[in-house]
Amino acid sequence: xxxxxxxxxxxxxxxxxALVFGIIFWFGGQKAQTxxxxxxxxxxxxxxxxxxxxxxxxxxxxxxxxxxxxxxNDLTYWDETGKEITFSDVCLDSNRLQEYLCSNSxxxxxxxxxxxxGCSNGKCNRYIKVIYPNGGEIFRIGSVRTIKWKAEGxxxxxxxxxxxxLKNQTGFNYIIQDNGTLDAGxxxxxxxxxxxxLPTSKKNNAYKVQxxxxxxxxxxxYSDNNFSIKNYxxxxxxxxxxxxxxxxxxxxxNENQGSSCDTCSGNYxxxxxxxxxxxxEKQYYCELGCEYEGKCKKP
Length: 299
Prior knowledge:
This protein is mainly β.
């Protein structure tokens, strides 16, 4: 019995040893089947950066680059977050303009301006005003007269002569040769009155000057009333050399034109008269004194 137990024990030990070696050899075989990649054959690792949102720095841009009260302009501003904001020049009321300006490349500011001729559509109204001749004057052909005007928001101007008695294309002509332009800021032009540039008309007392913007023809102005152009000397005395009436003489020749009125110097009257279509002065002694408006007191 003891022999049988010993024999079975020996067989169990052998089986156990065989099982252990079998497991060891099986794991070794699995390890041998795993491929080995040399270190120098590993692929390069590509670094992909994280895409970040680009935020524009604070910036200020105005489309005309400068202050201009007579043009409506936009200002574009980017804040710290990159948000785009646009401001437009605006009329606060019928006369006051608020304009947006870039203080520098990164900041903006506002300024207010009182428009001389009113505000509309985010800008001051451009204007031209004829000062002279403005009606009632008498000019002599061949004389030199200075046309005068005021202008705001205008760079260049044309000047025309109109005969208001004519309604067609013959009723006007340009004064500056070849319809040239002048710097509006000068405000005046010495006009040699040439008969050849006057509109064809039998009348000579229905003229007006027009000053017109070269940039915007709708910006223009005329003489308020008609003036005359004569081809001879003109002299008109309103009181007819009457020392007891105050009056003025209107005159025009090749050298001078204008109006001269009667005045007092103590008890003497300086009476303005016409002689041979030219202005002259005649002096009267006023026995009862000379009144301030230029006439002798009646006895």
